[in-house]
From TrEMBL:
Keywords: 2Fe-2S, Iron, Iron-sulfur, Metal-binding. The lineage of its organism: Bacteria, Pseudomonadati, Pseudomonadota, Alphaproteobacteria, Hyphomicrobiales. PANTHER family: PTHR40261, RIESKE DOMAIN-CONTAINING PROTEIN. This is Rieske 2Fe-2S domain-containing protein. It comes from Bradyrhizobium pachyrhizi. The keyword RNA-binding does not apply. Residues 38-117 form the Rieske domain. GO terms for molecular function: 2 iron, 2 sulfur cluster binding; metal ion binding.
Amino acid sequence: MQVDAIYAICGFNDIPSRKAMGFHLMVLDHDGNHQPWSIVVVRWGKKVLGYLNRCPHNGVALDWEQNEFLDPDGVRLMCGKHGSTFELGTGLCVDGPCKGRTLTPIALTVLDGDICVVGVRLVEDNASRNE
Ligand code: FES
């Protein structure tokens, strides 16, 4: 049985509560090829939530400006392209052109004060945070 690796991507306190941060990572696919993997991580109090940084409307990254993921009220994720908004806790689009569709969730965990991704094989040399 293969055990999934756990990869720390940033400290829990690197993302203030009610803020989101993007990460451009690289994963190994089933054939061993490197594939770009862009994610957005939301911190909400003691919870962290993660989604692929890809709008279900036409597949672009959600942040129209680097690390600008939230709507003006700071309570939903928002796509900068056409303004679709998504519930933080579910990724469900509740307004905009892709209403009713959902962001793709990713598995995260917090371990020893770090936010970690699980369930993927990362190419660690190419991991970088949006800054
Ligand atoms: S690409 Fe995101 S709302 Fe159109």
